Input
Amino acid sequence: MDNTSVATLVSGQNVIPSQQVAVASEMKTPKLTDLGNPDYYINRELSHLQFNIRVLEQAFREDLPPLERLRFLLIFSSNMDEFFEIRVAGLMRQIEFSREYVGLDGMSPQLVLKKIADTTQAQVQRQYQAFNDSLLPVLRDNGIRFLRRDELTDKQAAWIKRFFYNEVMPIISPIGLDPAHPFPRLANKLLCFIVSLEGQDAFGRETGMAIIPAPRSLPRIVRLPDDVCEAEGESYVFLSSIIHRHAEDLFPGMTIKGCYQFRLTRNSDLDLEDEVEDLAKALQGELLSRRYGKAVRLEVVDTCPRPLIDFLLDEFGLTDDQLYQVNGPVNLTRMMSVCDHSDNKALTFQPFTPSFPKALKKLRKKRESVMDIVAREDMLLLHPFESFTPVVDILRQAANDPNVLAIRQTLYRTGAQSEMVDALVDAARNGKEVTVVVEIRARFDEEENLFLARRLQEAGAVVVYGVVGYKTHAKMMLIVRREGKKIQRYAHLGTGNYHAGNARLYTDYSLLTCDKYITNDVRKLFQQLTGMGRAVRVRKLFHAPFTLKKSLIELINQEAANAKEGMPARIIMKMNALTEPQLIKALYKASQAGVNIDLVIRGICCLKPGIEGVSENITVRSVIGRLLEHTRVFYFENNDTPLVYCASADGMVRNLDMRVEACFPIENPKLVSRVRKELDLYLADNVCSWQLDSEGNYTLNRPVRGQRKRGAQDKLLATLANYGQ
Output
């Protein structure tokens, strides 16, 4: 397959063949109000799947370091796990409960599931082909070997045998299947083996079959010590190979006819009722059941005999469409430890150190705080090219500043070892009024957030869990400080989470400001989250679920009106996803009015660009590179007086209607100009950007003859960060 083109995922036409000619005719000269045609939209789930495929394509790029290619291949596995746990499970749930939803694309859940199965089967085969035929040989040539059972030397085999008896045998529990030992309840994504046996055990039983669940406490990849490796470099063995090699030791006196890996994926979405008395207790109960949701996918090694596969499918209530036979480990994601901890740094991206703004470098000499600098001028940071440390520092300094009276902050994803939480704990212990809105329903971070909430409460902070029915996704911090006879407020607003690890991997904007209107708006939003009352009126911020969607549509409509009057009109939007129907229709109408619209949408995009008479003035590109694109930026030309907003929200129904989000203006003319230049870098990218066409397909942009390579992330790393430090 040509690596510059992702496999076509048809969005579907809700018409019979005899109607197709008429639909094609309508697409050439559509009515301005006729924006309900299913052919104008891409199915949300299939667009999501296309994004995952674009991630997989990075594993085929020979210009990337080998371990980074492996990392992308493993990220594809991780993404697909969540895709099945949440998105596929959701479609299956719709069908099960007869609550089938058909979106603007006109596709039924049954049809979407069929297309997902067909496309995913092909892509998983490509994934394992790349793994076996390309990446493993390249890594071996560079001193990183993954040894098969038949490749082990006597010395290595002896070491593995000791490892099995000392580390595996004491905690593994094989389960023979018979009337007294029914099929075990297997947890979500647990590595397991199905074993066919021959012979009688000590009790005279001839079950013929057993299950071996691999304990989660065991590493899935085992690095062999250097003294048993004959070649220089790193040698690894999969836990599955170790268990397979010594499976007979688990069934003494029996003969093993076959031992085969498999893994079951289950529905992992949480289902909380809106009217619960204690959200934290209800969530804890749901977390216990997450590991045992309804089965949605079975992965099994491709050497497994069909009778055993049929047995597993029947046991889990799955069909062949939900079966994935793979030529290799069924839990590739667990190889990520090799990418993270390998000694061979030459096989990874060149390291870099985020930079500091010049004003911050002088802090120590002048004995100033971050607040002193922000008091003079707004500060805009683009992570990870610029350091996240100033955001941590302003909170840490506030926690120990005797003039700081109160701190308020939202936490969505923060991390187990969080300097931000440490500072909030210190602030509470130092007598500050600390209020923290912890979103304990942040998917897959729920348990960690419950722990953080308890820790903050024990330190004396006031902790609230947002609003039932609306996730608090806004990224806000407010510091209240007494300065002489007045009260001054400082705010941080961001597009990304308060997570130091993500701040090194995700691109996000941070605004530090003491603007009296913005900080007062932030105060009002916190008041709305922690108290009760009608929706607050804010002056400069847009906030979901109240004004954000309406305000964005109004700004889009204003650009359309300007274009009709012959005024300069331009829209640039950079988001992770665009699915909201009203927002898409507003963009279509603006395109019809003559507005040039450039969208940089990393992941899901339900809008189709380039349709004559509908969206020929719209371009859509997706940037997939070293860093995860996460900034949300909205640029409006506004008759040569640009308006720029950054937000915690994407253009999705859930963000605009069912979450608490904050969208904030960038007002300093120098910062507005800076953001525009940085957006232009992404629009000019011909290294890591993929172009979406009117048929719903993505093609990798490449330099034309005579054109130099222009990578947005490369340029930002070169100009803002410091390499090799």
User: Anything to note?
Assistant: Confidence is low (pLDDT under 50) at residues 1-31, 272-277. Residues 17-123 form a domain with the Methane Monooxygenase Hydroxylase; Chain G, domain 1 fold (CATH 1.20.58.310). The two ends are 39 Å apart (CA to CA).
